[in-house]
Amino acid sequence: MNEFSLIEKYFTWKNSDLDGLGVGDDCALVSVSSQQQLAITVDTLIEGVHFPIDTTPQDIAYKALAVNLSDLAAMGATPWYFSLALTLPSIDEQWLKGFSQSLKALAQQHNIYLIGGDTTKGALSITINATGMLRKNQALLRSGAKVGDNVFVSNTLGDAALAWWQIQKQQIPSTSLLAQFNCPQPQVKLGQALLGIANSCIDISDGLEQDLSHILTHSKVGASIDINALPLSAEVTAHIANTQDWCVALAGGDDYELCFTAPKTQMDAIQLIAEKLHIVITKIGIITEERGLEIKGLEGGCQSYQHF
Amino acid sequence: MNEFSLIEKYFTWKNSDLDGLGVGDDCALVSVSSQQQLAITVDTLIEGVHFPIDTTPQDIAYKALAVNLSDLAAMGATPWYFSLALTLPSIDEQWLKGFSQSLKALAQQHNIYLIGGDTTKGALSITINATGMLRKNQALLRSGAKVGDNVFVSNTLGDAALAWWQIQKQQIPSTSLLAQFNCPQPQVKLGQALLGIANSCIDISDGLEQDLSHILTHSKVGASIDINALPLSAEVTAHIANTQDWCVALAGGDDYELCFTAPKTQMDAIQLIAEKLHIVITKIGIITEERGLEIKGLEGGCQSYQHF
């Protein structure tokens, strides 16, 4: 059983007086006034599962907040505040200093405030709960993709997964791959810029194949993407040439880029956003009426990342 | 170094456009409109630290939510929604079923909604982030105690601590002690009833001595309490008679009752609240100008519960 069916089976209670998204999108939405909604997300990082055992406290703090910012980004929300639940095996002042400085730097960069937390003793684990703000009914959802939409991704795919693959094989990843693994840039400004332009959006934390499939399922559509259109770094391109291992790009997870769909009429607007934000946005396919995800040019399949 | 100085040293950043409580009260407060504030709290429970290894999933779920509801209670907030970060060593459907049923039952009892969560693989740990609603500037704070206020506690002290003490000594606690340990009743209705009546309030999760001291520190006052006025169950009374161990009542922690202060003029109002809610509220002392906590009738001292 994977994480998704686990959550859905036991923890999806119907909440009639909330906005009803419950578990499913990157964030839950809660209305606080007639104009405003909160977008709320929570992510736990565990040593040895979500980051290697010798990761620096700076990188751990960065990633713990960044993955939550990425969830806010996927909804187009403006970051507002977060809480920190920190479980530590022991108190190490140097570690705490590095952790808190890095957390504060990323928080300030995105104008999100630490409001409180809890510290406990145990195996190293960090749970951050982040809340953002949205104008009501503006949120980017997984369920809005329309037949004929173009499918886009930001920047490149598979860099973090390749770094993790190398680490597990006792290889030392390049600085740029490690940066993508440890310090993924949450696409907060991109998400906000896509409000009113994209029909659906998700962050690629579990791999393109799985995350795009969530959009397709929730939107009740299909998609056809071109394997040769995927934006890849030189290192990932070389890795795939050597190994035929497309999984790093399709199913590796931890990319924290955005995958979104938008009507063809929005091509120019999206190009302008890319230029303004100095990021690369690549069209990788289209939304189709026929259900399922077709990956043109891929021989064999891929298995997305599962926590269990 | 204890939990409090740890948090204060590294994670108290000043957030000028929030309501500024940051870390310190039971909840952080965030204004969402000119009339309303959110009260937000987070608590992590770890197997072997906050509950014994063979605790049932029902009791774990209950306690994980109850301790957060208790934080909302301490501020007088009305519970609204919560998220769940659940770390599990493996997937056990029976365990999950028991956990989710118990969580849902307590959530429904207090009209609080599960909005989302995250599940990860690792040592058993539960982090709940709960949000409540308050009318602006109504929150019960630690900082409002006034010289001359009476000091009160709800129900009895030390039952949970005595249960834990017995478990650690391989004894089997009585059903009523175990119920106080595993299923503390969060005093949500009491907190709400005290709005406009109490000057300060805290929940007794770390022991009366430490938690009342937080009120005194934040309010810049002292208190004098009478050891013989403390409300104790028959079992705790017998334990103290046998062992002279006042620590279970003063410093045991995990009581999740409320300690609050109120002007003498509110005695009748408080008596009415106790009757209406069918709880016992006991006056245990008064707030004094002289700083520090005087415990009349106690010989020797006590050490409150510390996570580290």
Automatic annotation (TrEMBL), chains A, B:
One of its GO terms (biological process) is thiamine diphosphate biosynthetic process. It is an enzyme of class 2 (transferase). Reaction mechanism of ThiL seems to utilize a direct, inline transfer of the gamma-phosphate of ATP to TMP rather than a phosphorylated enzyme intermediate. Keywords: ATP-binding, Kinase, Magnesium, Metal-binding, Nucleotide-binding, Thiamine biosynthesis, Transferase. Mg(2+) 1 binds at residues 43, 118. HAMAP family: TMP_kinase (MF_02128). InterPro entries: PurM-like_C_dom (IPR010918), PurM-like_C_sf (IPR036676), PurM-like_N (IPR016188), PurM-like_N_sf (IPR036921), ThiL-like (IPR006283). GO terms for molecular function: ATP binding; magnesium ion binding; thiamine-phosphate kinase activity. Mg(2+) 4 binds at residues 26, 41, 71. Mg(2+) 2 binds at residues 43, 71. Belongs to the thiamine-monophosphate kinase family. Mg(2+) 3 binds at residues 26, 71, 203. Its EC number is 2.7.4.16. Mg(2+) 5 binds at residue 206. It comes from Bathymodiolus thermophilus thioautotrophic gill symbiont. Catalyzes the ATP-dependent phosphorylation of thiamine-monophosphate (TMP) to form thiamine-pyrophosphate (TPP), the active form of vitamin B1. The keyword Transferase applies. Pathway: Cofactor biosynthesis; thiamine diphosphate biosynthesis; thiamine diphosphate from thiamine phosphate: step 1/1. This is Thiamine-monophosphate kinase. NCBIfam families: thiL. Residues 24-132 form the PurM-like N-terminal domain. It catalyses: thiamine phosphate + ATP = thiamine diphosphate + ADP. Substrate binds at residues 50, 254, 305. ATP binds at residues 117-118, 142, 205.
